[in-house]
Amino acid sequence: MSLGCCRFAPGLPPRATASRSGNNDKPLAFHTAIELALKNSATTGLAQADLQRARATVSQSRDVFLPQMVLGSGLGFSYGFPLSLEGAAPSVFNVNFQGALLNAAQRDYIRAAKSEVASTTAQNADRRNDVMMETALAYLQLDLLDSSVSVQREQQQAAAKFQDIVNQRVQAGLDSQVETTRAKLAVAKTRLDIARTGAAADELRLRLSQLTGLPVSAIRTSTETIPALPPVPQDQDLGER
After folding, report:
1. Which of 25, 74, 179, 232 could pair covalently with 175 via S-S, beta carbons 3.0-4.6 A apart?
2. Mean pLDDT to the nearest integer, 216-223
3. What does the pLDDT look like over 121-168, one tens digit per residue?
């Protein structure tokens, strides 16, 4: 009997690969980024693992008070009078139940394990809030940087046009070479600003990729999906509140 084989993309099932590659042209919504971060971030995975470990400790501590049933048999070939374990008479089939009835120390262990579950649950809530806060801040900062890059590119184009005008005036003898140097410095400054903004945006895009589990190429913000801040009343003293 022969079996056929199929080739898939390494590391991802074929459906997941197709869906991710198809969604690269669609911006990542704000609420979608937070939902993916809560589901796929390493902090969330560690929090779930700690909670499962704490619950398993409670179950293990309770198992001491549960009766344990042992089944056995003394059947076997032998010469002379057959002997069994612990000096008991030989038997065809044995059923033994064993469990703790009173154990104060074990009950304290159970209480301590339950307290650990409660504390782990509270810590997981804080971790969840931290993941949401980090994802939201990274998304907002990335959106601002992308908008800044657009403005800086327009400034670069304006600086390049100004440099051309200055070069023409210098060739016509209306300005000195100092003005040409100043125009070149203005163009170089806009290029430096774009490079710095792009580097900061790449760092935030990489961090969002680590939080959401999406590839870096799929991280593109959408300003329309960012919720607006609630209005702040001006007639109330927020300092006292």
Report:
1. 179
2. 88
3. 888 888 888 889 999 999 999 999 988 888 888 888 898 888 888 888
Specify the pTM.
Answer: 0.60
Rounded to whole angstroms, the Cα distance separating 50 from 122 reads 12
Identify which of 1, 11, 15, 42 has the alpha carbon closest to the alpha carbon of residue 211. 42
Residue 8: burial class (beta carbons within 10 Å; 0-12, 13-18, 19+): exposed
Cβ-in-10-Å burial (0-12, 13-18, 19+) of 66 comes to: exposed
- Spatial distance between the Cα atoms of 217 and 59, rounded to a whole number of angstroms: 45
The DSSP secondary structure of 83-150, one letter per residue, reads --GGGPPP-S-EEEEE--S--HHHHHHHHHHHHHHHHHHHHHHHHHHHHHHHHHHHHHHHHHHHHHHH
Q: With b meaning 16 or more CB within 10 Å and e meaning fewer, what string describes 67-105? A: eeeeeeebeeeeeeeeeeeeeeeeeeeeeeeeeeeeeee
Tokens encoding 121: 């649950």
Backbone φ and ψ of 114, nearest 5°: -65, -40
- Cα–Cα distance, 129 to 45 (Å, whole number): 14
For residues 69 and 36, the answer to whether their CB atoms sit within 8 Å is no
pLDDT band at 3 (very low <50, low <70, confident <90, very high): very low
Q: Are 41 and 131 in contact (CB under 8 A)?
A: yes
Please work out, in degrees rounded to the nearest 5, the angle formed at the alpha carbon of residue 151 by the alpha carbons of 148 and 155. 130
